[in-house]
Amino acid sequence: MRGATVGLGAAAVAFASAVVPLGAAAAAETGDQVSLMTFNDFHGALGGAGGLVCAVETVRADNPASFLFSAGDNVGGTAFESAVQNDEPTIDVLNAMGVDATAIGNHEYDQGIGDLLDRIEPRTDFPDLAANVYDTATGERVHEAYTIVEREGVRVAVVGAVTTKTVGKVSPVAIQGLDFRDPVDSVNAAIDELNASGDEYDVLVASYHEGASANADPGVAPNNTDPIFDKIVGETSAEVDAIFNGDSHRAYNYNAPVPGQDGAVRPVVQTGSSAANLGVVTLEYGEDGDWSVLGDPELRPTALAEGEECAIDTEVPERHPARRRRDRRGRCGRCRARRLRRRGRHHLVGRLQGLLRRRRPHRERPGRQPGHHQG
Description:
The chain has one domain (about 35-360): Purple Acid Phosphatase, chain A, domain 2. About 20% of the residues lie in helices and about 25% in strands. The chain has helices at about 50-60, 80-85, 90-95, 115-125, 165-170, 185-195, 225-235, 350-360, and strands at about 35-40, 65-70, 100-105, 130, 135, 145-150, 155-160, 180, 205-210, 240-245, 250-255, 265-270, 275-285, 290-295, 300, 315, 325, 330-335, 345. It is globular and about 55 Å long.
């Protein structure tokens, strides 16, 4: 096990090198598999939520040791039915879906850093991560850098970062006082901090709200022209087992060489946008004590045909995750695990459909501007 914040996702809807810093994970046995799921740039696409959760639940039904991550831009730039309600339906749906952690995206800052810290982050049942955003006045991080999620005896650490292009995408007033530093350098520094902390983990994920400039066929690297993506692939710490991307709304899924590790590969995935695909990575625990990627990462289309219902409707307990909280100056306080609250068992897909129906906005009156709030 490598070296805790434990975050258990609210349920309703590899390291490929030969070096394991703190020894093999005691709970894992040869042949055990972990499924890592990712999506990015959801942008309040509530119309695609049913298909996305169906894809997620299909993976969970196949492997209980499954983890779900977002690579940012969950809110902002959203569909009308979410925007008109200040994106609260989107956050509620992602909570119900059981997201384990998210990288923060540039759109999370649309209404200002105060809105992100005081409204969005408290409303999410999962950690919001950005290792590379600092307070210019104090020099301290503004958000959590990483978290650790435990499920089925496996501990997955995830480090998040947001694009430095945020400074050109968001109003300067909204991000006044923030310093957006190099995401790769910041992720690597956070990994060093994680290892120094003594917090133990088995698998390590880097989730960047940053990505390649082009799409690519499955198993093929994108024909990229953005230097930051090349740095993500080539300079992210070799300890990272999987790299998840966002921001550029591109779709690619392939295995890239691990820097400094001859013959070793790790998956790099971006899923497009608006719940179009679910990225799925499978890691397997080998006799050598390493988790390594099994085959190529997948992009699973999520769209359901008109009238089609999800074939999977698993029963799962509703859970609320442990969260690390930060004070307003960005310092990470003690992990304050919320008490696990079980409220019976629910059919995930059906409950999500009911949630979406309840959150459907009233029809706008003529002359009122869509997406604008009164008051």
